[in-house]
Amino acid sequence: MKILELKNVETQLGGSTLLSKISFAMEESRVVALVGHNGAGKSTLMKTILGELEKAKGEITINETSTQDDDLLTYKEQISYLPEEPLLLTELTVMQHFQLYAMSYGVEEAIMEEKIKTYTSGFELEDKLNEYPESLSKGMRQKVQTICALLPDTPLLLIDEPFMGLDVFAMDYLEELIREKARGGTAVLLTSHQLERVKDIADTYIMLQHGEVLDQGPIDDFKTIRRRKHDDH
Ligand SMILES: Nc1ncnc2c1ncn2[C@@H]1O[C@H](COP(=O)(O)OP(=O)(O)OP(=O)(O)O)[C@@H](O)[C@H]1O
């Protein structure tokens, strides 16, 4: 079943075109890697799919809902998002962040508690539940944000640089969790500069360059990102 479809999407910001002619589709249970140089447009594409950035042209459909035809809440409920930089609230504890995310997606309490137990144990955060973000290390904050994004079971999971700041054990654990999500039916779109790790988990790749899709296909066909040339601009 098709979970996400983009047709000829264009995004503009401050008078410049950041994305153009973006078209691709994702099926359920698929892990798709969004790759490309710094500034290629990966995060911009995620924010456009989320509706955080308004598209100037084109169509985006998630599980048959679109921002054009359906209300924004129905559309957004289909997506869970792990941003590149943790967005934690200074006044909430780790546990309160989990509760906030789980409640806003209507996750049942028993399921929430079980997941929190499993994920905090896997990420070695069990003793941090009552801490505030400021007393956590950068990697720990990243883990908290990661758990928040994994609590709901949405059809689409967007993860921007999920491995950044994590130690190797946490990266391996997260890789396993991403696989588990996909096995459960979730379509996972992730960005990463860790190409070797990406090759391990993704089924297909989409390469962006200067805000356009340069290339896409099965991950086994992915070679490398071409060195940026000055005359590419
Ligand atoms: N708020 C903004 N205002 C104007 N331009 C922006 C803004 N955010 C990003 N851009 C521009 O959009 C382009 C794409 O940026 P984006 O963050 O999507 O790249 P990326 O592929 O995610 O890069 P990275 O690998 O460094 O995370 C860049 O040229 C960047 O300068």
Provide a descriptive summary of the structure in words:
By secondary structure, the protein is of the alpha/beta class. It folds into two domains: 1-78 and 154-233, Rossmann fold (3-Layer(aba) Sandwich), CATH 3.40.50.300; 86-153, no CATH class. It contains seven helices and ten strands. The strands form two sheets. Strands 6-7-8-3-9-10 form a six-stranded mixed beta sheet, with helices on both faces. It has a four-stranded antiparallel beta sheet with strand order 2-1-4-5. Strand 9 (204-209) and strand 10 form a beta hairpin. The longest helix is centred in the C-terminal third of the chain and has 16 residues, at 168-183. The chain is globular and about 45 Å long. The N and C termini lie far apart (38 Å). It binds adenosine-5'-triphosphate. Residues 13-14, 18, 36, 38-44 line the site of adenosine-5'-triphosphate. Adenosine-5'-triphosphate binds next to helix 1. It comes from Virgibacillus litoralis. Keywords: ATP-binding, Nucleotide-binding, Transport. One of its GO terms (molecular function) is ATP binding. Residues 4-233 form the ABC transporter domain. InterPro entries: AAA+_ATPase, ABC_transporter-like_ATP-bd, ABC_Transporter_VariousFunc, P-loop_NTPase.
